[in-house]
């Protein structure tokens, strides 16, 4: 046998080191994996955690009694016995590997440790006592030691009745466990019970009883030492001897450390000690337990993996084979091997086991666990019945199975009776999950599972009734003796009656821990209230004298004093003055109750006035009058934010003095909002959201409080969630604009950027602002997207939400319009530097201008200037460009200069303010006229989409597609036809000296001289 530790990592250490958590994290990091655990209960816990991480369809649970195997499962959680002997998954983990030294189950752990490997990673988890033997058996294994997260201390010996809360008492027999639980029930109010013989469902229910705080004590066997995650502060050993299946013996230091290590969780320290008849631990043992230094495991239990099924004799011989590797020892006969010995002597069984396949079936049947803890002979008789059915009929006789299941399907009886029935039904649950043993396995799996669940629930009910419900018997006895019950309240609020913890005092409300009913509950309540009457008065005095730092108002509208809830807020007529409702029992009465209410009201008023000071000052302002007073009232009602369109008439009616009076209180008049910038901060926004939620029953609406962290993080915009209540965006200082919400003050900065772009006039001269287009429209710029933290698509949503409308233009059209504008700029520059008088230019240009056929055509150069041969070449060269220009609607010179692109260029959005009121009709009329004139401009650019430029002289806006016209003369030449009178009128008009045609004519005259 040649073994190797290559690719194997052993993570070793004491309890509470996070080994199992680490294994789960490593497994989900791989594409597939399997983890083996020592208990079905622990496997269930890990399965639940994995389902929460990766989903129920990607995790399988496989144990001897249960199988959940989705088709898309990538990860498997198994008991070690249910792990496959071979696998092809990427990750393999085996927990509690120190159990390889266990006499009963050790050979199974040893087999998985030596032979089961992950394709990419193999992880062994367990005690540090395995370090030497793993290095010996697996050369090259990587050892990682992890320290305990918290410390463990010895607390000495204490009586059971004096053990601290959150203690686990450990014994090793069911009789001792029940006796201790009964004692705790009488003295300390009850205990949960955990034994290895209980079904996993019953153990889970008992553990939950303890974890939820319904009981403060847990009585258990060493089953709690196998990876169960419990909130135990102290472990007390009531016994230190146990029966290991072969003999009674004392627990060794390693076993004691495994159990004691369950005290303390994560970073919380734990203690351990002894109780009952166990003598105190000696100093050497205490030191070893506190420092986690135990004797190393020297040998692992081993059984031959390669079994010979040629005959029963050969099978028995292979099971008796001795390991040839140092560090391994042959395991003692386990339940399956002892059953095989009995069956080999049974003539009926031996006669059927005459060939390999039947011998394999016999060995598979011998693996049936002995849940009932009966004698080996009785267990072998059950296996013989099953085996003969499998050999003779191919499946187990379902009539026999139905009779056995029906016999177990009863929930009457006491604890021991129910435990026996659970063990019996677990046997048939195992049979129903064996592949090929039943004709209808699905039916029997569901049926046995339901019966086991019913029995487990009934057993949990019996355990709870016996060890929890009658916890007040001592108190009732004192009442029958007419003795006065003594009650007290500790500093941390725990209420005790006759030394028994009966509940907790949170603020001014008493919460009972027990679930007692009838006279028991009344007796406890009467005794507790006796102590609480004086305690309430003392607490009221302390609260009345406390500072604001002792009180806090949380996001649910609850006022807490030193962490305990004492009042809650409800809506009132004044949104800034909510009403206070005390959270107190009837015992808080009179002056004490009045003092508490007055102190909390002062605190809440101070908090609101401090956090919302600008809004509070505006609400109480005496120097605001008239229309400004009404606008201030609306601002207070809307928590400092108004949409300007909603109050446009009021704002327009305000004079400058009224506006100034509002500005003194922090009101800002923006383009889109009238608001108070001081309230656009996390603390005011949180308070505003709370007050709105109180007034509108919005504390439970989706999105409540979710936007405050976004505001605190400094985000200027955020992707909206359709499920959120829309009002929460405004309350947090955001404007809801479709798929994105933008902070209100940022929108006003955006308005400041857009305003000069829409006010710039091309004919007025001056530098063109970035983003300005034609004086009425603009394009989005990086500066806009930067302040909003938005993409171009987001900008489109935001601008549409603000009421802007987009005209779609191609890049060629945009370039053509920009070229026209550049020509205008060049003309004005030439005008400033020209040295020729206007009258001279007009005289020289008079004859060429008269020869022009139409004002809209581009003048051609004189024929004498261009040789004949060159003109043909130019015509041929310009023809493709002209055709491209005609197809795209752009000038020939622009189309010829641009390279041909394979992909269609993205359109450009030209944004303009949306139509308002009565102007909508005029805008539609302009669009209709523009559509009629579209395409008649003889190559003039910019005719597609948009509101058009203003004419230079008339100042009237063009229609849709009418951007290309440069003046009235072109429009008349284009649209009015060949009318002689109008043509004469056109020639009689004086020539514009700044016209490019006049300059061209002057240049031609100079060349002729």
From TrEMBL:
Family matches, as PROSITE patterns: HELICASE_ATP_BIND_1, HELICASE_CTER
Low complexity biased stretches: 850-866, 882-897
Record-linked InterPro entries: DEXQc_SUV3, Helicase_ATP-bd, Helicase_C-like, P-loop_NTPase, RNA-DNA_Helicase
Record region (Disordered): 847-1009
Protein name: Helicase
Domain Helicase C-terminal: 155-308
Organism (species): Martelella lutilitoris
Gly residues bias spans: 956-965
